[in-house]
Write a structure and sequence with these properties.
It contains 14 helices and 13 strands. It is an alpha+beta fold. It has a 4-stranded antiparallel sheet with strand order 1-2-4-3. The chain is flat, with a radius of gyration of 26 Å. It starts with 5 loop residues before the first strand and ends in a 6-residue tail after the last helix. About 25% of the residues are buried.
Amino acid sequence: MPGLQNTFLAMDTEEGVEVVWNELHFPDLKAFRAHEEKTKTMFEQLVVVDHPNIVKVHKYWLAMKDSTAQVIFITEYVSSGSLKQFLKKTKKNHKAMNARAWKRWCTQILSALSYLHACEPPIIHGNLTSDTIFIQHNGLIKIGSVWHRIFAQAIPADLRSPTRVDREEQQNLHFFPPEYGRAADGTAVDIFSFGMCALEMAVLEIQSNGDACVSEEAIERARHSLDDPNMREFILSCLLLNPEKRPSAHNLLFHRVLFEVHSLKLLAAHCFINNQYLMPENVVEEKTKSLDLNMVMAEMKRQGRPPVHWRYSEVSFLELDKFLEDVRNGIYPLMNFASTRPHTLPRSASQAAEDPQKATTPTPEPFDVETRKVVQMQCGMEWSEEKGQWHLTLLLVLEDKLHRQLSYDLLPTDHPGALAAELVHYGFIRLDDCEKLATFLENAFHRHQPAPS
């Protein structure tokens, strides 16, 4: 990762998942102390940034020792490497980039940028290249290095001496627009960088001359090699030299070359996924088995002509399953299609459990905050004659397939809302799932008759 002295693949022993351990070193502790609060504020912002296409910063802490300081932060591990590595392998195998994959990846990158730019204040990535874009094993794109620009603004240059940006790499200069680094630059910096990433994805590689930077002639050749006029127009609009004329990330999501999923279809898919905990795991398969494929599911009336019928036999259920899986994985986030989406980032509570100034080891105190979404819930209740009370068993399946099975002897005073809030408090579910779980428990309670006398 650009700008880091040490990066290690590590294991989160509590959750049983691989993570990345990142270290920033500062040789002058006294100079670092003067900017300690700014550093903490910056990382507290990053911890609450939550988007399926952004590499998640899980937690951070400061470690002071002798005359030096360290910032250590834990990020999620993206398993399949960087976009640049993928493009090199694809070109080596003499393959072309699939147009459908290009559209999906552009959509995901823009979704992340649109989220960052809509924050209050806007977060400018400022270091977007094919080296800082990563690919998950399921095809999900995630952009990393989001911390770099915020860090550069919070900390003076002399204290940032250990870090570097991709712009210092000669071969990556073409990702940065002419206005980069000026006081007045803004979110349009990221749009230019995205345009170069989109061009590189389309042609697989923009030829450079050895270690020298990519020439303007090489970029022109790459542009002219694009066969699709819509794709060419889309990329060129991002690469305009005047930053004020570049489109926003949100507007680019609706460009005709990308926008192919109807918003109503997307909304229906999200409603299905969000309420899937109320349905059996294979509900789609079971429903399709019982359908009469000749049944008309929709009719379009036409004046003076017979209506057009759409039958179930014309629906590809395999495609439907794949689409739902993509929505579940975050490839089509619903937030893309909202008209306005201001995000005010709250201060993170990640440091509440410890005083960073007193930290003597690089191991933080545990802080139980769950961020993963609950995708499925199952509940069982049994009456215990011996104890004279109900025994509750709750199975929770999280978005990363982790299963949590909880059991509890219900008291007469127990309320579904209070039980759900307690699970949030102890880190078993995230806050956003509290109301959903409370409703689920309330329905489960009502399904059972009053306790036997």
